[in-house]
Automatic annotation (TrEMBL):
Subcellular location per the Swiss-Prot or TrEMBL entry: Nucleus
Chief site of localization: nucleus
A single MF term (Gene Ontology): RNA binding
Record-linked Pfam families: MA3
Protein name: Nucleolar MIF4G domain-containing protein 1
Organism of this sequence: Geodia barretti
Amino acid sequence: MSQDIILQIQSKAAASTVKESSRTRFMLETITALKTNNSRKIPNYDPSLLEHMRRLMRGLLHSKGPADENQLKISLSDLLNADQQGRWWVVGSAWTGRESTTPAASSSACQSVTAESWVMELARNQRMNTEVRRNIFCVLMTSEDCVDAFEKLLRLGLKDRQEREIVHVLVDCCLQERQFNPYYAFLGQKFCECSRTHQVTFQYCLWDRLKTLSDMTSFARGNLHQLLTHLVMSQALSLSVLRVVEFTELSEAEELKFYRKLLHTLLACCSQDTCKAIFSRISVQPHLKPFRDSLLLFMKHHLSSSPSSPSSLPRTSQILQDRLELVELIMRTQQPII
């Protein structure tokens, strides 16, 4: 059809007795170039612009990024019922709303409301008395894993004091668990690795908890032990977090048991390289010398091989003894040993 039109134009132009103008000549040359698909003879034609538009449209149609989130979710039922409910996708158009919902959507909405009310009730029971603490608590309780929780907490956009509440709520939730949940330990590790500010907040928060060890329940002390062990062994926190502890003045049985178990785990239940890294971090800092001396004295007195030692197997006792000698060498030389 298009070729017939072009041929008719060319034949009439050839039969015309009127003097051919520049505009007519330009039109005929352009039509001929279109007929022969010779784009180089079309004036001011840039094929790269067309290719750019094709790529742009292809990206808008197939991308899954921010552009995909801005697409209107118009269903077939919305189009079919536009006369009754209105065209909600048109700006300024009247819309009566969706009068009926499918059973699946209704069930999903009920489950969402039930879950939200359950979390909010739990937040009130845990004394989350501010909006910030409640939001953090809800994220911790409803996230799929530590990575999901970490990303959601960052998206809350908390600043300064509000951001510190993340650590306090995390530690509080961890200690409330009847059985230790590694989810809190790995989430705390990610925050410590993310920012120095979170490390300092964890340090002060743990100091407050260590001061009240004797008042804690047994499962809270166990959770605190495993949380602190994980953070130190993963290098998220330094062992200097224990520098507020007066090891030479410990008298409470529960405190002695807690620190013996903690240090025994750091010495005998990790690899030799990890043990070196843990104690090397505190060996090169001159201001920690009093802490190193009291810590070394406590370990030699309470963790040496004896009937009351936490290690019962001969092999474990030998590993513990070797690690004690290694740690003493690191602390005495005040240099990391490779």
